[in-house]
């Protein structure tokens, strides 16, 4: 499997206990999280050896996350410890309309990546770089992620990008700058991961499904993966993709869902684990990614519920 660098935030998900709203909840359980960190751990469990460029606060939650990543086999060489508090993402109870996450803590600590710290040397031994979109909500993070994408492309690395737009983290006077950065990185990427909600909120497109994928392909990437919630996912690509001009759609797998937190990250890790081997069977790759996501929602916690490669293969074998 190709060596992958994942770049972006690691934080703590605060999962609510019983209650219809956050006001009713009597307590929370903390779990490791952050979309890029989830993807890195997902790749590790699927047999890769990813490196993660991320920032942790110099606090007990940062210690907890650092130990968790080490135990999951994620290389610590690119993990930075920053003076300040690690960000907490408070998850709303199931069924609550509106905001799913509320963020607490320092934006600068978790999202303020320094462009001067871009791990250029590490690119020499890696063939793929995956970027998370939430870091673009911070001015320094925007500059750093754009620099990393540019340097990775210059060195022949494949670049993938998860749009993952979080408007609650974007001050009103920075919205256009964030959207410009998202559009720029989409154009510089080979593979883009998204949902129609994220893309519309980011001002990229108001289309859905296959029409959305084709719209984003026109911006520059050769492959676009669109997650469709309970309807599975579709992946479209141009002739420039190693797997050729294709459209692969998979309806997902029915499971008894307990917690959907991180399901999209599980899908991303599953698809990346296949595409980074330069597979030509896009249909099988999407099915594998959907199976990874299906297994992840059967337990609580975005990172802790991520499956192993053996579990995914067994799951698929039982459904053939």
TrEMBL record:
Recorded E.C. number(s)?
2.7.1.-
What is the protein name stated in its UniProt record? Carbohydrate kinase family protein
Specify one Pfam family.
PfkB
Q: Give any single GO term for biological process.
A: fructose metabolic process
Source organism per entry reads Halorubrum trueperi
- Please, which domain of life does this record's source organism belong to? Archaea
Give one GO molecular function term. Answer: ATP binding
The family note in this entry says: Belongs to the carbohydrate kinase PfkB family.
Please state every residue range assigned to the domain named Carbohydrate kinase PfkB.
4-308
Is Repeat one of the keywords UniProt gives this record?
Answer: no
């Amino acid at each position: 499997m190709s060596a992958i660098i994942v770049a972006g935030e690691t934080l703590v998900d605060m999962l609510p206990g019983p209650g219809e709203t956050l006001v009713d909840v009597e307590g929370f359980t903390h779990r490791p999280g952050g979309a890029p960190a989830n993807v890195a751990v997902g790749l590790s469990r699927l047999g890769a050896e990813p490196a993660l460029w991320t920032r942790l606060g110099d606090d007990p939650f940062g210690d907890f996350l650092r130990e968790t990543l080490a135990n999951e086999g994620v290389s610590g060489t690119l993990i930075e410890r920053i003076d300040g508090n690690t960000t907490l993402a408070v998850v709303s109870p199931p069924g609550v309309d509106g905001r799913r996450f509320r963020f607490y803590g320092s934006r600068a600590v978790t999202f303020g990546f320094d462009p001067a710290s871009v791990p250029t040397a590490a690119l020499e031994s890696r063939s793929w770089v995956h970027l998370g979109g939430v870091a673009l909500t911070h001015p320094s993070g925007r500059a750093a992620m754009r620099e990393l994408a540019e340097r990775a492309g210059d060195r022949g690395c494949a670049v993938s990008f998860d749009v993952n737009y979080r408007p609650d983290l974007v001050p009103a006077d920075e919205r256009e700058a964030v959207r410009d950065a998202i559009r720029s990185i989409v154009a510089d990427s080979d593979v883009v991961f998204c949902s129609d909600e994220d893309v519309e909120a980011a001002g990229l497109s108001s289309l859905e499904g296959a029409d959305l994928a084709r719209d984003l392909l026109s911006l520059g990437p050769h492959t676009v993966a669109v997650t469709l919630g309970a309807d599975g996912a579709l992946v479209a690509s141009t002739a420039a993709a190693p797997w050729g001009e294709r459209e692969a759609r998979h309806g997902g797998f029915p499971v008894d869902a307990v917690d959907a937190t991180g399901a999209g990250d599980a899908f991303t890790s599953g698809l990346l684990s296949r595409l980074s081997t330069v597979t030509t069977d896009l249909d099988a790759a999407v099915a594998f990614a959907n199976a990874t996501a299906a297994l992840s929602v059967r337990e609580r916690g975005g990172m802790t519920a991520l499956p192993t490669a053996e579990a995914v293969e067994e799951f698929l074998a039982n459904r053939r």
